[in-house]
TrEMBL record:
Residues 1-20 are annotated as: Disordered. One of its GO terms (biological process) is regulation of transcription by RNA polymerase II. GO terms for molecular function: transcription coregulator activity. The lineage of its organism: Eukaryota, Metazoa, Ecdysozoa, Nematoda, Chromadorea. This is Uncharacterized protein. It is found in: Nucleus. Residues 280-643 form the Aminotransferase class V domain. Residues 955-1126 form the tRNA(Ile)-lysidine/2-thiocytidine synthase N-terminal domain. Keywords: Nucleus, Transcription, Transcription regulation. Residues 1-12 have a biased composition (Polar residues). One of its GO terms (cellular component) is mediator complex. It comes from Caenorhabditis briggsae.
């Protein structure tokens, strides 16, 4: 801090100082930081009056005490006009932008400054938080909410008590929290007018952060301190995890409420034997439901322009084709796919996807031997198709927790390698069991598979709607698939297959026909080479694809991590209740952590070892409460039998009992279903699943309904009859489906479509249904008449009697009548899993009562980013795609761009990872640094030495996008640094920086953890460039805008953090493409410069890879398994850009002239050596370089 000047300086002195330089002065109350004993606010700056605090604070602290605190801790900020007059003023401009009190220094009288001191320059660290501004914040952080009583909101004189909805509070007796709540609601404090409809903060006095430690350390106070940091301030050492989660849950709460109202069928009514009931859909694991807004969008935006995608010359065909491209882009963004991955829409769901995958993995000869290893939990879709392909099928056991036994997996892999040598091994595993909801550790299993050179294939059918999908994570997957119809909103959407391109061996489509061929004549056909086009033959399901894309967008809007936490919270809540429910037998592991709310169960008959039939339990929940569940084995037969305790021998007995006789003439008998008289002996259970957007009250009501059925199932059994040929149970008074909707009722008339009108009766809520069910149970139990109940035991063939595992109505009636009938024991006993210790984590009951603390990391992380949701974000590459403007291609960085970004609201968003000094040798050896090939390394070092790119004392930041080029550059420069240190030559520091432009199509955040593992200084800069582009009127190229803003952020951040060199990853291919773009589009002889210094001489930009080919970098990245982040530019999707077209042109020419790029390298050398950052000087230098070289 500069030496303070006297506050009593004369006006002439101040005028003289103003003429010397335009600076900003900060006025502080004398005596900081202690409270003055007898302080009064001087002059005309009565802050109590200015901020209207009197009516609120006097009730808690008294007028004098409040004045003392405010005069001590609320400073005056005094700025001058014409702040842009000098460079010094410009560098301080952001610090004084719209301060709470802003006056010209010449207008302040001596009396007004009495008792204050002036300080020039950057604000002292002790007082910096006092100058902050916050644009918008949550009403109260969760830590404050948890300390208030939920009764009613505090009094608001302007009647806006709805500001605290959906949570209401009565103030606690703690004056600090009471004061905080009142201030937060005070319009005069927040800068709102009395009629303002938005809750936006403009001026909040920050003396609140000094009222007490409890408030100062709260997420709310931290959030205020983080919200308005300005350029040239140090990065505070705090974590914003709590704030981010608070924001996520606040936003998600409103979105979940909307989803509950928007779900089609949420108000549907069914007609049952006990009266009308509201339909409560609890079978999302099987298939999700539609949402009104999505269907309206399709009706208004998609269908009017619907056309066939096999053409693009008409508006309907082109629009539909673009919808298909965009839908596929949403899938790529959700799963993190790159250009080496194929995304294919596959018919009706996962079954079609696996069938196609089996085809793609086989060559035309089809004679390759394969061993398939799978878990015991697999769905039929991920089991049966592989049996057709595999030479041998091997299963891996599960642990008591329900997870894959990794030791057993290693043993199986080892045995297969020993027995079959280098045979192809495919690992087919589900990410989540569709019977128990247990989530599998995808990365751990994949790492083991990769260690044995096995292909990793994952079934995400049950997991995709509820958890994040990372296709290209630390250990990339080889293929995955899921069913679109299982995502909320994705009804009737296609399945999706994602597969690595290098695995595809088939060259002919699985389904040959329209849309799969390149050309056909009378004698031959040529199929498309691009698998995404070749395998989507026929007329594409464009409407289904759009619906799936909308469902994916909705999932990401809620937040994948938010959904996962909600699902686990519901699981915990339901398991806690079901584990205490009498007669209810839960199938599967007892652990509740890492689990979706998918529960399979049996209801045991009291006083016997038999169970109630699963179809009966399902229909009883339907008739009494309208709850829609699923009964059977859920298409995972082998695992279902293991859960039930059915071994191989018993399984074969069941097959023999329920198989249809082979002597039946199905055609003559017109048999549509396949069944026998003993079908009802088929073992099964009831499954219930809860969507994440259910309220906790809904969950509790459903749990209560299941508990009721578990207790009273025997009271209603005699009212139901079973069809032995189908296993279906129906109420004796409702053998016919009375509420059926008929297509036959539809009539097309000149006045429109007509159908039979349905009268929707009034229905009661779930609580009323529960009370009514109690009455019905009493009435039903009293109505048992033994003489009218048929003896169902005679319907079971005598040789299959032992296989009956469920109780019959006659047996319940005989027990009630006091007869000593001997009930047989059950033929199977469900597997009992041992209890597994479970970590305790807080429940989420519509709001967060407690937010988990952020984990401690070895490397210090400083975060000022405030993320609204855990959405994936797009990182447009600063190395590969720094310029894609089409006709213009500006590749320089200047200080004007840097100054622009400093003024943006999100300049303060960043995460910093600091390098740990003096690591132990064993820790250094664990770092995943890679050594580049000698030829590539030599080309890079030759350029560095010839052009003197890196000098002693330099601090070099690699512009890290996560692409293959920038990642390779990082490892090459690290190796170069190690060699220099060993040779004691050039000494320089190495770090990395990433700019995240805020698109919703990509996730570069894994780079944070990766750089932490590498132990380098790393700066993750966040800036909503894409959002700014969308708000810019008349913008012709998002790519050009993004490129310019990103360059500015890189330059500004590098200088801000104290680094003087930016190393970018453009390679020889990039330079050649840039040259032709400039020549073709602009008529200029120019390309990217090898190195240059910015106009202000503060920063050097270097490109060490200019002599390296792109394919060499790709090979290095793939061979070393660098964590390449997939490229998904939202501005251009998969459409050809100017750069892409030039790349194709050069590739064709290289086939004719193999030495093409060596020639281009020589031709471009004069242009590469241009070192000026001034456009006017570039052409002159280029011409002079050409003359000199000739």
């Amino acid at each position: 801090m500069n030496e303070p000047t006297s506050s009593s300086s004369t006006s002439n002195d101040r005028t003289k100082k103003k003429s010397e330089s335009s600076k900003c002065f900060y006025a502080f109350r004398t005596g900081l930081p202690e409270f003055p004993d007898n302080s009064e606010i001087q002059g005309n700056h009565d802050l109590l009056t200015a901020y209207g605090l009197g009516p609120v604070e006097r009730a808690f602290n008294g007028t004098r005490r409040v004045k003392e605190k405010m005069s001590a801790f609320l400073p005056h900020v005094i700025g001058e006009l014409h702040l842009d007059a000098t460079k010094e003023a410009s560098s301080l401009r952001a610090l004084i932008e719209k301060p709470p009190i802003h006056k010209e220094i010449s207008n302040l009288s001596s009396s007004a400054m009495q008792g204050f001191k002036l300080s020039a320059g950057p604000v002292d660290e002790r007082y910096r938080h006092l100058f902050e501004r916050k644009q918008e914040v949550d009403v109260l952080a969760y830590s404050e909410k948890s300390n208030m009583i939920r009764i009613k909101p505090p009094y608001d004189p302007y009647g806006r008590n709805d500001l605290l909805k959906p949570w209401s509070f009565r103030l606690s007796t703690d004056p600090v929290r009471s004061l905080t709540a009142h201030v937060l609601l005070s319009p005069s404090m927040t800068g709102m007018s009395e009629t303002s409809g938005s809750f936006q903060y403009t001026t909040v006095p920050h003396f609140l952060t000094n009222c007490g430690d409890s408030l100062l350390d709260s997420p709310l106070a931290k959030k205020k301190r983080m919200g308005s940091r300005k350029f040239a301030e140090n990065v505070p050492d705090v974590s914003t995890d709590d704030v981010e989660k608070s924001e996520n849950w606040n936003n998600s709460y409103e979105l979940l409420s909307w989803m509950r109202n928007d779900e089609i069928g949420s108000d549907a009514v069914m007609e049952g034997p006990f009266g009308p009931r509201k339909v409560v859909y609890c079978d999302y694991t099987a298939s999700a439901r539609s949402f009104s807004s999505i269907e309206k969008y399709i009706q208004s935006e998609v269908l009017p322009f619907y056309g066939n995608t096999h053409s693009s010359v008409t508006v309907t065909a082109e629009q539909t084709t673009l919808f298909m491209h965009e839908a596929k882009q949403e899938i790529r963004a959700m799963s993190g796919c790159g250009d080496q991955d194929s995304v294919i829409f596959t018919g009706s769901g996962s079954t079609c996807a696996v069938e196609l995958l089996v085809h793609l993995l086989q060559s035309e000869a089809g004679n390759e031997d394969v061993v398939v290893i799978h878990s015991i939990q697999e769905h039929h879709s991920n089991l049966l198709p592989w049996r057709k392909l595999a030479k041998e099928m091997r299963s891996v056991e599960e642990l008591e927790s329900g997870h894959v036994d990794l030791d057993n997996l290693k043993a199986v892999l080892k045995e297969v390698r020993e027995n079959h040598g280098d045979i192809k091994i495919i690992g087919a595993f589900c990410a989540c069991s569709n019977l128990t909801g247990v989530l599998i550790d995808v990365q751990s299993v994949t790492k083991i598979l990769k260690s044995c050179n096995a292909i990793s294939i994952w079934d995400y059918a049950s997991a995709a709607p509820y958890i994040p999908i990372t296709f290209n994570g630390e250990t990339p997957l080889d293929a995955l698939f899921f069913s679109g119809h299982k995502l909320p909103g994705g009804v009737s959407s296609p399945g999706v297959l994602i597969v690595k391109k290098y695995l595809i061996q088939a060259t002919k489509p699985k389904r040959i026909g329209g849309g799969t061929v390149f050309f056909v004549n009378d004698s031959d056909e040529w199929f498309l080479k691009e698998v995404e086009h070749r395998e989507e033959g026929g007329t594409a399901d464009a409407v289904g694809a759009v619906r799936l894309a909308m469902a994916v967008k909705m999932k990401r809007a809620v937040g994948e991590e938010t959904i996962k936490q909600l699902e686990e919270t519901i699981s915990r809540r339901v398991f806690k209740s079901f584990n205490k429910t009498n007669n209810l037998v839960l199938l599967g592991p007892s652990t509740v952590e890492g689990r979706l709310p998918v529960l399979s169960f049996l209801i045991r008959s009291p006083n016997s070892n038999l169970f109630f039939h699963h179809n009966y339990i399902s229909v009883l929940l339907n008739d009494l409460f309208g709850i829609q569940t699923r009964a059977g084995c859920m298409c995972a037969g082998p695992y279902a039998q293991k859960l039930l305790g059915v071994d191989e021998e018993l399984s074969r007995e069941f097959v023999n009992a329920i198989q249809e006789s082979p002597d039946l003439d199905r055609t003559h008998l017109r048999r549509q279903a396949e069944y026998s008289q003993q079908e009802f002996l088929r073992p099964g259970f009831t499954r219930i699943s809860f969507p994440y957007f259910f309220t906790m009250q809904q969950v509790d009501d459903i749990v209560s309904a299941v508990e009721f059925v578990a207790e009273h199932a025997s009271d209603f059994l005699h009212l139901y009859q079973v069809n032995t040929e189908t296993g279906e149970w129906h109420h004796q008074n409702q053998r016919v489906f009375h509420g059926r909707r008929w297509l036959g009722y539809i009539q097309f008339t000149p006045s429109g479509l007509k159908t039979k009108a349905k009268i929707v009766p009034d229905v009661t809520d779930m609580n009323t249904c529960l009370r009514l069910a109690q009455t019905l149970a009493l009435e039903a139990s009293q109505s048992i008449n033994l003489s009218k109940i048929p003896d169902g035991r005679v319907a079971v063939n005598e040789k299959f009697q032992r296989l009956r595992w469920f109780v019959l109505p006659i047996e319940i009636a005989e027990q009630r009548a006091g007869r000593n009938s001997q009930l047989q024991g059950t033929v199977f006993i469900p597997r009992k899993y041992s209890d597994v210790p479970v970590k305790q984590i807080p429940e989420i009951l519509g709001k967060l009562d407690e937010i988990p603390k952020p984990s401690e990391n070895d490397a210090k992380e400083e975060s000022t980013c405030q993320v609204i949701c855990d959405d994936v974000v797009c990182l447009l590459k600063c190395d590969d795609q720094s310029t894609k403007a089409g006709a213009t291609e500006n590749v320089g960085v200047d200080e004007s761009e840097a100054e622009d970004v400093k003024q943006m609201e999100d300049w303060n968003k960043r995460v910093i990872v600091k390098r740990i000094e003096n690591l132990r040798k064993e820790e250094e050896r664990k770092q995943e640094w890679q050594i580049p090939p000698l030829e590539m390394y030599k080309k890079v070092t030759d350029v560095i030495h010839q052009l003197k790119m890196i000098r002693n004392g330099d601090k070099v930041l690699v512009c890290l996008s996560g692409g293959k080029d920038s990642l390779s550059l990082l490892h090459i420069l690290r190796h170069y640094q190690q060699r220099c240190n060993k040779a004691r030559s050039t000494s320089f520091q190495l770090g990395a920086i990433t700019v995240d432009p805020g698109s919703a199509e990509f996730n570069p955040r894994p780079l944070i953890e990766y750089c932490r593992k590498l132990n380098i200084d790393y700066f993750y800069e966040e800036q909503d460039i894409i959002g700014a582009a969308m708000k810019t009127p008349g913008l012709r190229s998002i790519c050009a805008f993004c490129s310019r803003m990103k360059r500015g952020r890189l330059a500004a951040a590098a200088q801000f953090h104290g680094w003087n060199v930016l190393a970018m990853g453009q390679h020889l291919d990039d330079l050649a493409e840039s040259f032709f773009i400039a020549a073709f589009q602009n008529g200029n002889l120019s390309t990217m410069k090898a190195q240059y210094t910015t106009k202000d001489n503060q920063l050097r930009v270097i490109r060490p890879l200019i002599m390296v080919r792109e394919k060499a970098l790709r090979n290095f990245a793939e061979e070393k398994k660098l964590p390449v982040v997939a490229e998904n530019c939202p501005a251009c999707f998969n459409q050809a850009t100017e750069r892409h077209r030039i790349k194709q042109l050069l590739a064709q020419q290289e086939l004719i002239f193999p030495d093409l790029f060596n020639s281009l390298r020589s031709a471009l050398k004069p242009l590469l050596l241009v070192v000026s950052a001034h456009t006017s000087e570039m052409r002159t230098q280029a011409v002079q370089n050409i003359v000199n070289s000739s």
